[in-house]
From TrEMBL:
PROSITE patterns registered for this protein in UniProt: OMPR_PHOB, RESPONSE_REGULATORY
Name the record gives this protein: DNA-binding response regulator
Superkingdom of origin organism: Bacteria
Taxonomic classification: Bacteria, Bacillati, Actinomycetota, Actinomycetes, Pseudonocardiales
Record's keyword annotation contains Mitochondrion: no
Record feature DNA-binding region, as residue ranges: 126-224
GO cellular component annotations of the record: cytosol; protein-DNA complex
Organism annotation: Actinokineospora fastidiosa
Length: 226
């Protein structure tokens, strides 16, 4: 169970979300504006943030950007059904998951549990993954490139570790959603956005990736550099 910050200016929605998350065992703090949410997160370091994209003042995308400047705290976005571009933008800024409005509070609680469970899971007994200058330690949940630690979100780390553990094997986006996100179904663009973010952090030339390759008509494959 964790301490969850809910940033939403609709207090009716916030109250419903709070009650469902508290019922699931979480401690919940509410913030009605982006500024309030950023300030509280900076001072108290929540375990997860539920973030509405449509906020007065600074919007959810800017809140997500500011959160990512400070930490890798998991972020679950709340988006309207037709806001695909904003949803992709949020994922590009480092959000870990999203739920579209109108949403089931029970579904949101399950998504929060899923993200927290992966972020706080007992480290697996696994060897350190090394590929040239890229080093991923699943037990310590640390990744570095040429000795410099990489700032990866929970989902980015899980995706990279999974792909590196299965070099040369092509995975569909649906399979990656299942293996990394724990989803039986979902928006495949979530995988696409996270792959793009990973390439920007681990590839020498992200536009011409050599590690995470696109397998046309299938999905993605990790190719070792050495």
């Amino acid at each position: 169970m964790g301490r969850v910050l809910v940033v939403d200016d609709d207090m009716t929605v916030s109250d419903v979300v709070r009650r469902y998350l508290e019922r699931a065992g979480h401690e919940v703090v509410l913030a009605a504006t982006g500024e309030e949410g950023v300030a509280w997160a900076a001072e108290h370091r929540p375990d997860l943030v539920v973030l509405d994209l449509m906020l007065p003042g600074i919007d959810g995308l800017e809140v997500c950007r500011r959160l990512r400047e400070r930490s890798a705290v998991p972020v679950v976005m709340l988006t309207a059904l037709g806001e695909e571009e904003d949803r992709i933008a949020g994922l590009s800024l480092g959000a870990d998951d999203y739920v579209t409005k109108p949403f089931s509070p029970r579904e949101l609680a399950l998504r929060v549990d899923s993200v927290l469970r992966r972020a706080n899971a007992a480290p697996p007994v696994a060897a350190v993954l090394v590929d040239g200058g890229l080093r991923v330690d699943p037990a310590a949940r640390q990744a570095s490139m040429d000795g410099v630690e990489l700032a990866l979100t929970t989902r980015e780390f899980d995706l990279l570790a999974f792909l590196m553990a299965h070099p040369g094997e092509a995975f569909t986006r649906e399979r990656l959603l299942h293996e990394v996100w724990g989803w039986e179904f979902g928006d495949r663009s979530t995988v696409t956005v996270h792959v793009r973010r990973l390439r920007e952090k681990i590839e020498r030339a992200p536009a011409k990736p050599t590690r995470i390759s696109t397998v046309w008509g299938v999905g993605y494959r990790y190719d070792r550099s050495t």
